[in-house]
Design a protein that fits this description.
By secondary structure, this protein is an alpha/beta fold. Helices cover 46% and strands 16% of the residues. It has an eight-stranded mixed β-sheet with strand order 5-2-1-6-7-8-11-12. A four-stranded mixed β-sheet has the order 4-3-10-9. It is globular and about 50 Å long. One of its GO terms (cellular component) is cytoplasm.
Length: 308
């Protein structure tokens, strides 16, 4: 199975590295020329749980190539539509498109460009940090939950599950994946935005009573909106999951902190807390914490000049 990973940031590099190390046919595509050139010239430099340098096939988005069997999307949420347009030449009517983006509602965007029979939606709790062009830090382990958007895609989905597990990525084909997607969105909505705004690690934010209260309120808004959309989540179970994760990922700066504070880039806030605020408004549900967090992130984005 020829796999293209579209979006070779921290997570794209992790998946590309692990799949290539397992002997699979994988090519990374990205739009950051310095990153592409660094990997082409020196290989991907990995630090963290192990230190090594690996050769990976990486190309710019517009480069011609044969169509792939599987396309894994790892771009930022606000880049999704443009990326699907720019990579149309890499897909045909048989290509499976596997979305692992943070946030909510991406399946509706993908349907504009890909037959729903070919779409897979998933969520992962693997972590990675992009240190600079061609350099990533990989620590700890993670999992993937996913399923085909159309039930007819289960057979191919199980093939993809086996492919990912061969690379040690701990994948599970999960018919209730949207529960997992909303749970991950809740993780991002309570950890990413808060750590970005307060410039701290997960452990630092969760260590205070005030931080945990904010987490509770944000989590409640996510769960209330999810329930109204027919996705039932256990509030106490998710809170305990967040607390356990805050210990496991104690020293980690979430991806939104990496974008906003470290890299001075536009964030995915509109597809996480902002998405819950919009959905809540449509459903007549008040979401004051998600609204406020979204507005604060927007203020910071405008302050550093990445939001018009």
């Amino acid at each position: 199975m020829l796999t293209y990973i579209v979006g070779a940031g921290a997570m794209g590099c992790r998946f590309g590295y692990q799949m290539a190390e397992a002997g699979q046919k994988v090519v990374l595509f990205d739009g950051w020329q310095d990153h592409i050139q660094a990997i082409k010239e020196k290989g991907l430099i990995i630090t963290g749980d192990q230190d090594k340098t690996v050769a990976l096939d990486i190309r710019p988005f517009g480069q011609d190539a044969s169509v792939c069997d599987l396309m894994i999307l790892f771009v930022k949420a606000h880049q999704l539509e443009t990326t699907l347009q720019e990579t149309a030449h890499l897909r045909d009517q048989h290509t499976k498109v596997f979305c692992l983006l943070n946030g909510l509602g991406h399946e509706e965007v993908i349907k504009r460009y890909v037959d729903p029979h070919n779409i897979m939606m998933g969520v992962t709790v693997w972590t990675a940090v992009l240190l600079g062009p061609g350099q990533v830090r990989l620590k700890d382990s993670g999992t993937i939950n996913f399923c085909a958007l159309d039930p007819s895609g289960k057979e191919v989905g199980l093939e993809v599950e086996a492919l990912l597990n061969q690379a040690g990525l701990n994948a599970t084909y999960d018919q209730e994946v949207f529960k997992a997607i909303w749970t991950k969105a809740c993780v991002n909505g309570t950890m990413n935005s808060t750590c970005a705004l307060t410039d701290c690690t997960i452990a630092e934010f969760f260590s205070s009573e005030e931080g945990r209260l904010i987490v509770r309120q944000l989590m409640h808004e996510f769960i209330t909106v999810a329930k109204a959309k027919g996705i039932a989540l256990d509030e106490e179970k998710i809170y305990q999951y967040l607390m356990d994760l805050s210990v496991k990922l104690a020293g980690h700066y979430p991806s939104m902190h990496q974008d906003l504070v470290q890299q001075k880039r536009l964030t995915e806030i509109d597809y996480i807390n902002g998405a819950v605020a919009r959905m809540g408004a449509d459903l007549g549900i008040d979401t004051p914490y998600c609204k406020m967090v979204t507005e604060f992130i927007h203020v910071k984005e405008r302050q550093i000049g990445v939001r018009a």
